[in-house]
Amino acid sequence: MQKTLFSLLLASFMIVCIAKEPRMKKGTPDIVSLSVLEFNQDGILFVGDSKGGAIYAIDLGDDQVSTNEEQLNIPNLEDKLAGLLGTTADNIMIHDMAVNPISQNVYLSVSRGRAKWTSRWETPNDLEDASILIKISPSGDMSEASLENVEFSSVAIPNPVSSDIEHQWKKGAKLRSDAITDIAFDNGQVYVAGLSNEEFRSAMWTVPFPFTKDVKANTLEIFHGAHGKWETASPVRAFLPYQLNNQQQLLAAYLCTPLVTIDASKLSDGQHVKGRTVAEFGSGNYPIDMVLYQNNGKDYILMSNSALPLLLFDPEDVANYKGEITEEVKGYLAGVKYTPRSGNGVQQLADFNKKYILSTQRLPNGKLALTSLSKEWLYP
Question: Environment class of residue 198 by beta-carbon count within 10 Å: exposed (0-12), middle (13-18) or buried (19+)?
Fold first, then answer.
């Protein structure tokens, strides 16, 4: 009896160990471009490599718990980075920012490519490949984060947009820079937005983590109210998974700036999925980042933009909106309402700690600052 019980306990232990097996190896990941960064709740860094057409999961060993509730502000971020990297501030370009929720260390993907920026429609990934990962502690200490000899795993995204296709209206840019435009992690799934090589280019890939080769690929279609037509070639620019009316949805923002809900249950391999357009937030703009945060126990979503102020909206308003925009919108605004918040020049956003959201912001003096936004101040 004791032997049988021992055998059962041993078998159960082995099953648990197998279930927790991270399927990672030690080495140096062969990342071409640190295009997009995202952390999960366990401190695993996901890197979207647009040029390489792959997603990497990296254990940086950054697992010391921080309970800090203070601000982090660096008014001359590019100068500090330039001094660390041996270049000038006007060459420093930040591609993405993510915060490890365990340590509160801030990670930036950086290149020396900002001097190439000539158009307001260009994104950093259009101009250069980010090859440097920077770590900033909650107290402001800055260092280069090594990717040598780390635990990592990777998975290729199937059929990303070809590397030789020119962008139709960005001179000199390739569509491959938009092969991966954003990443989100939720409930064991990695969601990846970008452009595929399919006839309908806009795509969403889904892969379980720990990674398997079972990557689901879907093409997307949305109605763009400001343009007055259905579109399949424009990628999701920023998105978040969220439960609306007890259904898993992706809240996705596109160029010029429709807000769309995508039913996650429809993301089965090879399917063409239509999103439901629930808002038009304004034309002549592209969303840069979206962050979900809580204040006084209530959820809010904050969006940063290239040409609009910070936009704050309530996911309950999205859940309660019963309509769908399927006709051209006059005046560019329709559907779910938002609250504008001052924040001209805000670019990247990340949830930092209990009291603050972290942002990068271009100041009136031309400097790029790392700034903390109070969640109480953002309250509508």
Answer: middle
What region, left, alpha or beta, does residue 379 occupy, with left being phi > 0 and alpha being psi -120 to 50 degrees? beta
- pLDDT score of 136: 98
Q: What does the pLDDT read at residue 180?
A: 98
Cα separations in angstroms, 22 against 15, 18, 25, 201? 13, 9, 9, 32
Question: Can you give the pLDDT at residue 343?
Answer: 84
Most confident of 7-16, 100-109, 329-338: 100-109
Residues 182, 200: contact at Cβ < 8 Å?
no
Query: How far is C-alpha 52 from the chain's CA centre?
Result: 17
pLDDT-based confidence at residue 235 (cuts at 50, 70, 90): very high
**Nearest 5 degrees, angle CA 361-CA 144-CA 63?**
90
Work out whether strand 287-295 and strand 298-305 pair parallel, antiparallel, or are unpaired.
antiparallel
Burial of 340-360, coded b for 16+ CB within 10 Å and e otherwise, reads ebebebbbbbbbbbeebbbbb
- Is 304 within 8 Å of 343 (Cβ atoms)? yes
Q: How far is CA 287 from the centre of its chain?
A: 11
* Of 285, 14, 267, 29, nearest in space to 146 by CA: 29
Band (pLDDT 50/70/90 cuts) for residue 380 is: low
**Domains located in the chain, CATH noted:** 30-378 (2.130.10)
Contact by Cβ (8 Å): 347, 288: yes
Q: Among residues 235, 269, 266, which one has the least CA distance to residue 253?
A: 235
